Amino acid sequence: MCRQCAGFSYMDMELLNVYGRAIPHYIIPIKGDGSCLFRALSFVMFNTQHMANIVRKEIISHVVTHWAQFAIMSHDHRGNNYLNAAAYWNDMSQPYTYGGLCELMAAGQIYPYTFEVYRNGEIYTRAGDHGFPVRRLRFTDDLSSGHFDAYVIKTEVPIKATRRVLLIMHFKEEGALKSQCKRTKGTQNQRRISEI
Predict the structure, then answer these.
(1) Which position has the higher pLDDT, 86 or 130?
(2) What are the tens digits of pLDDT across the range 41-96?
(3) Which fold has domain 10-161?
(4) What pLDDT sits at residue 156?
(5) Cα–Cα distances in angstroms (integers) from residue 34 to residues 12, 39, 99, 133, 147, in the given order
(6) Counting Cβ atoms within 10 Å, is residue 127 exposed (0-12), middle (13-18) or buried (19+)?
């Protein structure tokens, strides 16, 4: 199994119930350091986790600017609402402070995507306007201290935009992963999967 394809450590698959259809998705593991929501959002938007700090800053700035709307959704590490926008900013500006529903809803307002969060293969929540491209996140563990990973639909293979790498993956008929990475010239938006 290719454990280093395009910088990913391991790609399991999961069937998601998408509007009543079982759709296979790759699970893209996200580093569990408290920034997992921001890292997952960074990945599904930019094909890299390295934009997480910028994504965090944009989201928390939006929350602070619209504090009256988001105050009730905000929560600290004890599950209590933040007292004010300044307290929220001070805590959420830290690189390892966990993001949750508040930050996901803010992301849905500022980015041109619909973010769908799945838990145990079922839709858990959505953020963003319908009609925008859909990006999917995986939520696991406990609701107050869970973890976000990213999903990529099986028919797509993410590429590193900075390297312009086209990742071609081959699958055996019995479902075992046999991957080969081939670097080819192409645009950032090229994606291809070839079935054996």
Answers:
(1) 86
(2) 999 999 999 999 999 999 999 999 999 999 999 999 888 999 999 999 999 999 99
(3) Cathepsin B; Chain A (3.90.70)
(4) 60
(5) 22, 9, 8, 26, 8
(6) buried
DSSP class of residue 10 equals -
Is the predicted pLDDT of residue 5 greater than 70, yes or no?
A: no
The dihedrals phi and psi of 43, each to the nearest 5 degrees, come to -65, -50
HEC per residue, 90-143: HHHCCCCCCCCHHHHHHHHHHCCCEEEEEECCEEEEEECCCCCCEEEEEEECCC
Amino acid symbol at 2: C
Pairing of strands 134-140, 192-195: unpaired
Name residue, tokens 């199994």: 1
> Can you list the alpha helix ranges (DSSP code H) found in 19-174?
36-46, 52-65, 67-70, 85-92, 101-110
Tell me how crowded residue 17 is: count the other CB atoms within 10 A of its CB.
13
So where are the chain's domains? 10-161
